[in-house]
Hints:
alpha/beta, five-stranded antiparallel β-sheet, 18 helices, 29% helix
Amino acid sequence: MNNNIKAFKDRIIYQIYPLSFKDSNNDGIGDLNGITESLDYLKELGVGIIWLCPIYKSPMVDNGYDIADYYEINPIFGTMKDFENLIKEADRKDIKVVMDFVVNHTSDQNKWFQEALKNKNSKYRNYYYFMKGKANGEPPNNWNSAFSGPCWELVDKEENIYYLHLFSKEQPDLNYHNEEVIKEVENILKFWLDKGVYGFRCDVINKLYKTSFEDGKKAFFNCGCEHYANQEGNFQVLERFRKDVLDNYDTFLVGETFGITPEIGNEYLRRRCLDMFFEFEHNGKDTYSKVQIIKRKYDPAFVLKQLFKWQKEVDWMSVYLENHDQLRSINRYGDIKKYYLESGKALATLLLTLRGTIFIYQGEELGMLDYRSQRYEEINDCATLTAIKTAKKICPFFSRNFIVKLCNKTVNRDNSRSPFLWNRSINAGFNIGEKPWLKPNEIYKEGINVEDELKDNNSILNYYKKLIKFHNQSDILKFGSVSRLPSNKKIAKFIREYEGKKLLIIVNITKNKIKENLIEYLNKPILFSNYEEHSAKYLKPYEAIIFQID
């Protein structure tokens, strides 16, 4: 690696959902030792950084994104000794570890919040937003929660006092107007950096600072966001973290930043608040914004337009197609019936040739899919359960089963959180028999698992391995410029160039043949493709080609 290049710009990041990755003690829950035991697989895959979703002590209302103690490991995942061993073993294999950092809110079981509830004169009362409701008995304002419903919870009926929670009522928001909160968070950063953590993925990091508590513009979702999203105070808090803590370490921050524009994103980068961030526009049109449980027709032209807009307008991006909050990418953008292998490899080609830090979500490299079905009783995702309840209230004439089917195809995060598929043994090799916290996807019995795919030269996993190896050795892909070429809007046709050397990437992300003149390129070396034969006049469904053109 070039010593002048930060590791997060030189390596591929692999996101791990610890609950679902590997259960080493057969209790039905993935754990830290399971990750440590799997480091050889990750090293052979070619990733250089792993990002762990929250492993802190938590009541798990939102699967760990509700933190009760920032300094303790959740016992379901193991011990601090297990974590330290993971850091040590990962370092031996030259793999860095990134943690999820959730500081917009805590759990309502956090000792700070518990003290705030017990004693209104406690200093911890000012760690959160406790406010008096309106004279008519309504909450302090009309803001709504990201998980639907109001974002205020009544705690003192007699005095009409509420607390703010932009997410579930079990996730009270921290008060960044309070200097003590900022110092607490800086101490948390120092604690984990001193443990050897390389960096942090920052949950909803652009909503920390609430500028005012006036009523928001009426909206079905995110009502009030103009008062708390991307506020100047938010930039200033992150600048403090950088100056007071982060500049003293070799580290980085990547932010989850819903609702930003390229201009705002560049401001986060320019002011060094973040080193990169996740945008959500390219995956934001397969449901209706006001009724997110209703699926819309796949629009490949829109997906590519958004991806390349961000490639063009932002210097360094977090590049991803999947994460723990999204449906599986082949279900969203591919064809699971007729072109499963072709579309899986086409999406891999697109992902691994765009400019920025590449994020691969566990199972994406296997071509894992959404559940074929999931009953109401099997659903774990708290946001989906809330959505079902809300939809039933708004549309009582819909059966619950009908609403569940709608959610399973749109918002049910269990689809991406199901156990990792290691082999064809019981529970897909996730453990040795105890019932997993979520049922494994039955596709593991059909060959979609690590063991079977490693033996199959034509598998999606082996395609990923080869393409990751190429990416890791290619300065063009890691550091080169990107320029989209004129073509059909449903085709990704672009040049990556670095120090005079060029690659041409062409990817059809539809199930249709599309006219495209390839005559001038077919005499050039083809470095990668998901088809053995190519037409000079058209692209086959989900055809992907990487040409060396200079």
